[in-house]
Amino acid sequence: MQFLIVTGMSGAGKSTVLKFLEDVGFFCVDNLPPLLISKFAEVASHSEIRNVALGIDVRGGNMFNDLFSELDALSADGFQYAILFMDASDEVLIKRYKETRHNHPLALNERVTTGIERERVLLSDVKARASFIVDTSGILPRQLKETLNGIIIENKEFNSLIITVVSFGFKYGIPDDSDLVFDVRFIPNPFYVPELRELTGKDAQVRDYVMEHETTKVFLKKWLDLVTFLIPHYVEEGKNQLVVSVGCTGGRHRSVALAEALRCDLTNKGFTAVVSHRDSDRDAKRI
Prior knowledge:
CATH superfamily of the largest domain: P-loop containing nucleotide triphosphate hydrolases
Order of helices and strands: EHEHEHEHHEHEEHHEHE
Structural class: alpha/beta
């Protein structure tokens, strides 16, 4: 029997993860007091259950302090386990709490920021021992499921780094959370081809137009080489979310096509990569 401990920051997506795991055949228990882990394992070992996911978080109060001793007992009894830690930036967590109007479990009568600060301190040791760290700050639920599928179902090697490739238009500003920014306005612009103007870089006609230029092919190869060179160094630094932003004039054609291409190439190399097109649906007219 194998155990997956799902923990992390409140509001970072633990409920979504448990729902996904339940859908793929895991026996899931949410908000189990850590003190009951070994007892639960003993009972479950006499059943037909093979894969168990336990949602453990600070709602357990003082009992959360028993987590490590219970995990050590789990190993001593011959059970295998892994820890999946869900995280998100403070800004994103605050926004989610405001949207749902839920109270933070550690700040019932105080500001949400106070609860988040306390929770980060309480969870620092757990995060340090995590097998996987997934930052949901810049990914959609669909993209989260793709990441989980790669980790849990396809059993891909996971380096705790999620790469988000963001296309954008310079006339709308550079994304605030960018780690790396690339300007592809040197590539011929499909905007000036009438039959391509209203399309986006996700359409085959635009993609083919952008990719047919030798300059694009050379750039894409060098771009991929640079990003893949940097990734291991970011991992060593402890970074778990890398945002690679690529911009053209309006964020509709060239940047979209190249963001899709980089995401595909990174995925083929075994990295966890998702794509986001910030400005592709904005007005196609150039100013």
